[in-house]
Amino acid sequence: AGGSVGRAFGRAGMPLTLLDTPDRLILLRDQLTLVEAAIREIGDPALPARLSTRTGIAGLGPIGIQVQSADTLGDALGRVEVVTPLLLQTATRTGVCCRGAEAFYGYEVAERIACGRQANEILALGYLLGTVRHFLGKAWRPTRAVVTGAWLPARGEIEVLFGCEVALGPRAGLAFPANLLETVNPCRFRPVRD
User: Fold this and answer.
1) Cβ(181)–Cβ(103) under 8 Å?
2) Cys-Cys with 103: which of 126, 147, 168, 178 at CB 3.0–4.6 Å?
3) 108-161: pLDDT as tens digits
């Protein structure tokens, strides 16, 4: 987007050589700092939403495989809840809670981190959206998305990318009708062993 990767990594205090080992685990606070540095580098507060909605569930490696091989949307969200702290960071959690006819697919950073929390939530919500869209189609829209914080830069642009209202609240997540949890996987990935 016209920015310098080297400058973004420099602003985050991270060596550019990390790009040579893309599967290397990076501490969550360093990830958040890097996302914030990239936002500042190109001047695009909607960057996390843009990245995650373009990448989709297929770009999440082992987590994406778990989602794509689940029988139903509810099963997929349960798998993501179990594997997220194992494959990503122990400080991140996802999970579904139902209140009446509404399901809330939440995302939480348990670690005390001031810099980049909201940008990380936006990034995560795009991936959560990709998870649900694997089952319900690319055009599916949640009832609303929620992020924490007092205000949201580029709110209108993020709402366009997510296809729904983005509200501010105590916990980040996506709200949608609970009956959708029973949706059967339309394109189930079945790993084959030789």
Assistant:
1) yes
2) 178
3) 888 777 678 899 999 999 999 999 999 999 999 999 999 999 999 999 999 999
Give the tens place of pLDDT for each residue, 35-58: 999 999 999 999 999 999 998 887
